[in-house]
Specification:
Elements (H helix, E strand, L loop, with lengths): L1 H16 L2 E3 L2 E3 L1 H4 L9 H8 L4 E5 L3 E8 L5 E9 L5 E7 L9 H7 L6 E6 L8 E7 L4 E6 L4 E7 L1
Antiparallel strand pairs: 1-2, 3-4, 4-5, 5-6, 6-10, 7-8, 8-9, 9-10
């Protein structure tokens, strides 16, 4: 019986840790997955998540909207690239943290509905940067999962 309570406790902890507060709203990865590149607009983003914490204009008619975690100051939770002409989302990057269920590659795949992924190892020339990563991609669904090899955990999930 104690084992059952322990299992329930672990599941509840995982769910609680997977939630981030952004603009007074609790946001989980499943909420961010409602952002559909090519369809979701900037005004829809504001309805879903509130105003971004910062907006930067980029070259080639793009801007990036950045949403920060409120529970960990100055920590970016996710960012969205928007086309300035159509005001539609081009791509989304969700930063994954150790306490997130998606930090485990298997859980990340499940959250993305188990796409078939092809991995390719990335080497960095800067020794202070993430030295070894594997980028798992699904070209058909335009999904990329970044796995940091020394820690063997997912650090980013991107979709276009």
């Amino acid at each position: 019986m104690k084992l059952v309570y322990y299992d329930v406790f672990l599941v509840l902890c995982m769910v609680a840790c997977a939630t981030t507060t952004i603009n007074s709203k609790s946001v989980q990865f499943s909420d961010a997955r409602r952002i559909i590149p090519g369809k979701t607009t900037g005004s829809e983003l504001k309805t879903l998540f509130g105003s971004p914490d910062s907006v930067q204009s980029l070259e080639k008619g793009m801007s990036v909207w950045e949403y920060l975690r409120k529970d960990v100051p100055s920590t970016r939770r996710f960012y969205v690239f928007l086309r300035n002409d159509s005001k539609k989302v081009e791509s989304v990057t969700w930063n994954v943290f150790e306490q997130d269920p998606e930090s485990d590659l298997t859980n990340a795949k499940i959250a993305l509905e188990n796409p078939v992924l092809t991995g390719s190892r990335q080497e960095w020339t800067n020794g202070d940067a993430a030295p070894h990563e594997t980028h798992y991609k699904n070209a058909e669904k335009n999904i990329t999962i970044v796995l940091h090899e020394p820690s063997n955990r997912v650090t980013e999930i991107m979709w276009r």
